[in-house]
Amino acid sequence: MKASKYNINTLKEVPADADIISHQLMIRAGFIRKVASGIYNWLPIGLRVLHKVENIIRQEMNAAGALEVTMPVVQPAELWQESGRWSQYDEGMLLKFKDRHQRDFCLGPTHEEIITDVAKTELRSHKQLPVNFYQIQTKFRDETRPRFGVLRAREFIMKDAYSFHLDQESLEGTYQLMHDTYAKILNKMRLKFRAVDADSGSIGGNASMEFHVLADSGEDKIAFSTESSYAANIEMAEAKAPANEKTVMQSLQKIATPNAKTIEEVSKYLNIPMSRLIKTLVVKGKNVPFVALALRGDHQLNTLKAEKISEISKPLTMATEKEVFSVCGASIGSIGIVRLDLPIIADRSAAAVRNFVCGANENDFHLANANWERDTKYNAVYDLRNIEEGDPSPDGVGQIKFKRGIEVGHIFQLGKKYSEKMNAKVLDEKGASRVMTMGCYGMGVSRLVGAIIEQHHDENGIVWPTIIAPFHIVIIPINSHKSDQVTQVTQDIYTQLIANDIEVLLDDREGYRPGVKFMDSELLGIPFRLVIGERGLTENIVELTSRRSGEIQKLPLKSATQKIMEFLKVSLGS
Amino acid sequence: MKASKYNINTLKEVPADADIISHQLMIRAGFIRKVASGIYNWLPIGLRVLHKVENIIRQEMNAAGALEVTMPVVQPAELWQESGRWSQYDEGMLLKFKDRHQRDFCLGPTHEEIITDVAKTELRSHKQLPVNFYQIQTKFRDETRPRFGVLRAREFIMKDAYSFHLDQESLEGTYQLMHDTYAKILNKMRLKFRAVDADSGSIGGNASMEFHVLADSGEDKIAFSTESSYAANIEMAEAKAPANEKTVMQSLQKIATPNAKTIEEVSKYLNIPMSRLIKTLVVKGKNVPFVALALRGDHQLNTLKAEKISEISKPLTMATEKEVFSVCGASIGSIGIVRLDLPIIADRSAAAVRNFVCGANENDFHLANANWERDTKYNAVYDLRNIEEGDPSPDGVGQIKFKRGIEVGHIFQLGKKYSEKMNAKVLDEKGASRVMTMGCYGMGVSRLVGAIIEQHHDENGIVWPTIIAPFHIVIIPINSHKSDQVTQVTQDIYTQLIANDIEVLLDDREGYRPGVKFMDSELLGIPFRLVIGERGLTENIVELTSRRSGEIQKLPLKSATQKIMEFLKVSLGS
Prior knowledge:
The structure is a homodimer of 574-residue chains. Chain A is of the alpha+beta class and 574 residues long.
């Protein structure tokens, strides 16, 4: 490809609304352009990268025996009503509209309903199972706050797969296969990633794992063990019960704490660490109006864990100031678990503390040296809190550390959530009708392009892994308009490389200084740069620079094409 | 691919809502499934065909130097308001909706606005021109009456390209290149087609051509010359002026025509051919309230032609019964051009008639032997009617015949319609700012799949051109469960063909009789069928059948793979 015939539009300025490096570089390198909030055009050079990502995914999905289909972007409401998600899906993420006949439709953010409807009519017998359908397709989620370019866009490209099984065992086999396939795909793309235990959210099901590309800019926190392979979404990581404290119980004291209302204020006022305080959160109960949750002052409530407790109403709802006062007889900053007429659920860590401080249920007073065994009691103990760095790893090996990640994949054991509601059955070996068991497997295709850049860049621009790069090599001739020899050698090498299926960009743009072309080639992230100049040619050499290492090799003109192909072979990992 | 692992779901019954053969066969062969009116799923085997069509188009567009981009499905209203099409586009074909922030968006039925906005920011200098951007992308048109499966769907896949130029000459070059590229694409797909002069419709511009795949089921009529290469959309074909009749004028007569109101009734009542009648149509004028149009009784008004006449208001609007009565003093069935107080525009053919019959502007009366020269006069003569079979060809060579076609492509010289409104300019050689000239080039990708089937089928199913077929060859082993030799030979040939990049479907489905597999292979349209049976193997032969010719070849086992590859090479045209 000749750059003069290609639409290369690099920018020097960092765009104002681009907060993170991948977004900045994708705009500066001319890969994408914003059309509206969270909606982008992919320009030619960006689309080349997107297609490479798509093709790696397609290859590996095909190798895993999945069958590619295409489902529509526009979906009829009826199917979403059948599954029950029309009214509940993600509070408005579903973009709904009416067609000219006033029928309800939505833009598909995911395709469980459509594929279950396909399975219901196309799959009749257990002999057709297991089967795994996938598509690579444009999706739309009406995000409240689209940001970070393609990392959190409204219109995006996703690979979504849906598998159908006669039983759980078969589902687990395909789930594992997809797990391994995702690992292969991300390894091919040279990504550092972790597969972590995750919550199934609005998709539903029994078990799920997220695939996170590690990056400081990631929106998600992942909890790792320092010493084992344990990794989980921070929301999912179990906080183990610590040993109960054994210190001697001291006498309960009532202390005036004027104007100290928050945990920080009380801890400061009393000059004790926050971990010695027990805070009380009043939430709505399922069978009783309110339930009190007790957590250590330095810990955070984990909503997901709380919502799984049967005594607590879902979605988790905090009592209002007014409700708290009428139930506890004090304002929120002064309530506590001693002499409280509410069922109390204690977090494991809170339950282990002795001689703690808590609100006195009397404004501007706290109690010191309170103890569960003597002054109050809990109705139940649960893991209620977020895990923290330094906590023991849930698998018992090592301590917890946090890293940030970009979620690029999520695999689910759906079970029968959709197939039961939509009545998707097959005949089993005995001729009996059985509801199918399902899995689903998503991967963010356009998001991966951004995630790769987050891991592969330096101060001069993108540093593509060769397998993903828009071009393998850029040729920059120096002053070819003044030298017939440079023109001739450039043309020869260009033609030879193309004949060998090498993806070459020849930077033949007129009126650009070599320095500008060098900077562009680094911004665009092309793995190899070949400079052909008169000075080198007098010694019969051309210069090859690696984008990643910066290493420059002087190649003898005679063997240049051959050498380049050898380097590329290594670099492509083939 | 093994059929047992593939989702092959053929149907015997013709689906109730499928009127034409391509729709019936696509459903029966399991290529597509309906999700909602005009919205389809593409199942695995159908998607293989769709991808082949896409790839042929992509290859040829790339070969023509066009640059692939991807623009969004969801488009913001602002750009459509800038071009003025938000309120006018196709009366409701544009599906509009609001996002969660109550901003207006639409589903893109076409992308002139988006690409012009891209060009406006990305193209600065004439040095970047000409450039031709294209995409292969999902589009949505909210058709009133979606029908014929993928031929008139609401959600569909289209290739749309948009070129930018400094001047008309450059546009004409790319327009011709796209014309030739379309011809190459359709020839590669083994389609009989015609490129015809066409109207530019809601897209706009100066000149346009449609590409029609010839098929009796086509929705469009095309006018051809019997003797020249002339072809045009029937709406666009010029009806030449015939020579004026020279018969002697006879005396005007007033004739009672009780209950004869329509042209057919009057012609029957008076026992004269409809061509001797002149009908009068009263329409709204641009500068006067009404204008009368005069056409021969056997001719049909062409709205497109009428709307191009400056005296006539656009859109063409017929006068109501009441308005006609108040202007002519008679009901619609009895009005005529003699003693009529309206400007009269005569069609060329109507203007050539002598001694004609027309309404008397008095209910239940007509005039006979009326003549332009003596009894009335026209203000202007235009080509106002649809061309008819038997008319002379507009290029003067041969006569007009009609054929039916499926429009699969439409190329436009847009000119400056969008670039002027959206202010898309570049600097020319002299540094002056100039509005760019544009072309646009559409091709119906999913529609092509249906169009190919319309031309390539027989009573047993689809007969794919090999280059488009979902698989090149199907292997059907006979009773392999009873014969180790059949199993072994099948496995050997299957492996050898795959190793040679042949796309093979091995029909290993258990519990299906060979007859059913034969029927399926014909319905699916796979170009070659290889039957491996014990009887043949005793003679060391396998049987290859051509789907198109039905010819059976007995291939010696030894050279079978080699022979098959040779046949395929010829069949693929490579």
